[in-house]
Amino acid sequence: MNNNRKRTALCLLGATLCVFMAFGAALYFGRYPITLQALLAGDAMAVRTFTVLRLPRAVMALAGGFGLGVAGFVYQTVFRNPLASPDIIGVSSGASVGAAFAILFVSSGTLGTTVCAFAGGLAAVFLSLGLAAAAPGRSKMNLVLAGIAVHALAQTLLMLLKLTADPEKELASIEYWIMGSLAGVTQSRVWFPVPMVISCCAVIFALHRQAMLLSVEEDEARLLGVPVGRMRFLLLTLATLVVAAVVSVTGLISFVGLLAPHCARLLAGHNRRSTSLLSGLAAAGGGYHCQNGGGNRTAGQYLHLAAGCSVFALSYYKAGEGDAVMFTVENLAVRLGDKNILQNVHFTIDTPGQLVGILGANGSGKTTLLRAVAGLLPHTGCCLMDDVPLESLSTRCLAQTVSYIPQQSGISVSMSAREVVLMGCNPRLGVLQSPTAAMCAAAEEALRTVGLADKAEQDYLTLSGGERQLCILARTFVENAPLLLLDEPDSALDLANRSHMAALLAEFVHASGKTALICLHDPMLMLDWCDTLIVLQNGQVGAMLYPRTDPVEALQSVLAAVYGPLELVPVTDRTGRVRLALLPL
């Protein structure tokens, strides 16, 4: 961990020095020679060139590059796509249409072009958001597809505007604007984009933890307490304001937002808040080509920013501290398309500290039941925790009540195993809060409990499939929700780790007094560790079994109806514990 921090600190220091060097070079070099002596002596031409042209262009290059780098980090994180850039939701193409419209019909002056380009970028983004909201479903892919459609529409409008432009003057102005340049930046043009970039980037840095939570699958993020729709809208709006403010003055240089985040991740090796800062510095310091002085446009006047605590011992895990004591599912039914998956499902778990297994053949509705209880699927009927309907809870309250492990976690961006576990603290934190020292200690202890203490700093994406599942289990321990929903948490685990996982889960549930519903494909594992078994048949509860007390013959009869001919044989292991071995016939 210390090595990682040192590496990040060195990268930030190096990037900062490069930015200052580039900034100083941009102030010093130019067509008109400016010396410090001339500025101190009050040379009128030197002072005017420095304050009206050279300093504003250098500041705009710094602020513009930094803002585009941070915005690119946001786009790639929120969309979980390393190729995401400002073009993905149409902001750059919308700004191009706005600028072309201003040049043709409003004014070729810089103010009119800036205002129309900014408005065009925002209009394109809000059109993308509107189309995504009108589309069926709530997937972020709706926004990506809407952005592609808006980008195509904007390019078509831009071509039409170019066809109507005077090829001698107006068409050249449009093409020069699209190429991106600092030639038109003066003292009067930086007052709007620079404060906009600073303020929006400050809010983005404050919301970094929320952005990382949005990098997981939507359903998973929602059950971690993230208001996915609102938070995504807020972050994308902030990033869009940054991009629109910059390109409205400099033209289309938004490609920087694609390259800089990759450079930052390669240098830092992670996706923390410092990486988004490094992304901005990489974009700002990648290169300045600010040729100041004259009014003639040359190739050198274009802006090029290149790449530019024991879990079971902690006090809040003890039973009897407000955990729900009764969980009931009443007449739950789920219909997908024209098919009834579940109907009239009803059961009650009235004893705290119960590990409840859900058994059934493939397609019997086990995963559907868990997702319906978690509020991830539309359904009729209700699910009650101490007579409080889960359907009535807000996103935050639901995340504090229910912890959910999907069959496969949707984490797709680089973050350490510790950071993944700390995601479980989000339901108990405010939007701008960071995990406390106690929460960090609980995360460390949870990783030790599942056997991943030595991998706390390792990138989650480089862990094996089984280690990833154990990491998500550790996150579940840290969440401290009274109801746990686990959909095949043993997937990708080997034989020894499957038994270890089941034992850890049973110990956690019994010690904390929580209720856990778990779906496994191995009935022997459920017979070993579950207190109650719910058997789903034909979309309904076919039977409820109690492996600790039910006769072996009764268990065998019900399981044979699900899995075909089999025999349950009691065996005593070397610890003296009597277990049931399932033998298919």
Features:
elongated, 585 residues, alpha/beta
Topology:
Layout: H1 2-28, H2 36-41, H3 44-78, H4 91-106, H5 110-134, H6 140-164, H7 170-179, H8 193-206, H9 208-213, H10 218-222, H11 228-250, H12 256-268, H13 273-285, E1 327-336, E2 339-349, E3 354-359, H14 366-373, E4 380-385, E5 388-389, H15 395-401, E6 402-405, H16 417-422, H17 437-449, H18 465-479, E7 483-487, H19 495-512, E8 515-519, H20 523-529, E9 532-537, E10 540-545, H21 552-563, E11 566-572, E12 578-584
Parallel strand pairs: 3-8, 3-9, 6-7, 7-8
Antiparallel strand pairs: 1-2, 1-4, 4-5, 9-10, 11-12
Helix pairs in contact: 1-3, 1-13, 3-8, 3-11, 3-12, 3-13, 4-5, 4-6, 4-7, 4-11, 5-6, 5-11, 8-11, 12-13, 17-18, 18-19
A few lines on this structure:
The protein has 21 helices and 12 strands. The protein is an alpha/beta fold.
Question: Beta-sheet strand percentage?
Answer: 5-15%
Helix share, percent: 40-55%
The main sheet orders its strands as 6-7-8-3-9-10
Average pLDDT level: 82
Radius of gyration (Å): 30 Å
Question: Which residue ranges are poorly predicted, with pLDDT under 50 across at least 5 consecutive positions?
Answer: 286-324
Classify the oligomer: single chain
